[in-house]
Amino acid sequence: MELSPDWVVGFVDGEGCFHVSVNKHPEMSVGYQVLPEFVVVQHERDLQVLYALKRFFACGVVRKNNGDRWCLRIRKLSCLEKVCEFFTKHPLKTKKNVDFIKFRRIVQWMKEGKHLSSEGLLDIVETALQMNTQNRERLLQVKRDLEAVVRYSPPSGESQR
Amino acid sequence: MELSPDWVVGFVDGEGCFHVSVNKHPEMSVGYQVLPEFVVVQHERDLQVLYALKRFFACGVVRKNNGDRWCLRIRKLSCLEKVCEFFTKHPLKTKKNVDFIKFRRIVQWMKEGKHLSSEGLLDIVETALQMNTQNRERLLQVKRDLEAVVRYSPPSGESQR
Fold first, then answer.
1. H/E element holding A147?
2. ipTM of this complex prediction, to 2 decimal places
3. Residues of chain A neighbouring B14 (CB-CB closer than 8 A)
4. What pLDDT sits at residue B156?
5. In A117, A125, B33, B144, which residue has its Cα 20 to 30 A from A64's Cα atom?
6. Could you read off the pLDDT of B108-160 as tens digits, one per residue?
């Protein structure tokens, strides 16, 4: 199945999701891991579309999601940069583009290592909170934790280990 | 907002719906009205996409659907023919194309007046039942009613009034 850029934009406008989660992770310098991901979920009858998208981006993993739903998931930072380049060159037409722009900013910040300091991570969490997200409560909790840390520590965030 | 054919195909692969309902209607010759429709539903934040699709097909009505959901609905037979021409020239890539092909057959049959006889309507209902439909029970009931009529009447169906 050959996909054209415009088809991919239209399909992702409908079915794609840019998602950022922040999970506790004691081995990370600030105690949290930032996990941006681009996901497309489909019923198993359209599994071949997920594989075509995987080939299109030359990135990602297709796996079972839930029941008869499957998903293409792109998490690798270098792959997400490719995805961001694509949707910068071929912009989404729905309001999903607003989410995408915030997602791209977070991917860029991660490339710059901003997620490795508490202040930087706080910026990431605040940006993720502006996205259309289902894990608002969790992000708000992380935000409160980080605000407490940032408030009572040197600006560099070096002492957060 | 300018839409390209490929974007429209991708978006409809994700968000479009080809739907056929059959409702009791005493004024119709066989007692039922066939209502094929092409529908795209969106959150109100993407209302402008629905209007762009309406301009693209130069057809349809945009109206509130449910809560914060809006829809573009195309029902007029001449408009549905245009929609079918478009998706014949620019095929859908998901399994929705299987539904579309059945939908197109029903639109063509209606153009030929096949829905005006019980036998023809039975063919339409049986084809609609092969589609990914949410009103299966209702269609099955209509099918049983029509089968009883067709079984006990002349083949032409002329006596069904």
1. helix A136-151
2. 0.89
3. 10-11, 13-15
4. 57
5. A125
6. 999 999 999 999 999 999 999 999 777 889 999 999 988 888 887 766 555 54
Cβ distance A6 to B7 less than 8 Å, yes or no, reads yes
Residues 6+ apart with CB under 8 A from A27: none
Helices (DSSP H) in chain B: which residue ranges?
Answer: 5-15, 47-57, 77-89, 96-111, 118-129, 136-151
**CB neighbour class for B69 (10 Å; exposed up to 12, middle 13-18, buried from 19):** exposed
Which residue's entry shows tokens 């002329």? Answer: B158
Task: Give the distance from residue B73's alpha carbon to the nearest chain A alpha carbon, in angstroms.
Answer: 17
How far is the C-alpha of B120 from the C-alpha of B113, rounded, in Å?
A: 8
CB within 8 A of A9, min separation 6: which ones?
A: A87, A90, A91, A92, A93, B7, B10
Q: Distance, in angstroms, between A14 CA and closest chain B CA?
A: 5
Integer Cα distance of A156 and B86 in angstroms: 58
* CB-CB neighbors (< 8 A) of B49 in chain A: 13, 93-94
Rounded to whole angstroms, the Cα distance separating B37 from A128 reads 38
pTM for the model stands at: 0.90
**B52 reaches A (C-beta below 8 A):** yes
Determine how many CB atoms are found less than 10 A away from the CB of residue B14: 21
Smallest CA-to-CA distance from B100 within B113, B86, B84, B116 is with B84
Q: Which letter, b or e, does each residue of B119-138 get, where b requires 16 or more Cβ atoms within 10 Å of its Cβ? A: bbbbbbbebbbebebebeee
Summarize the confidence of residues A46-67 as an average pLDDT.
97
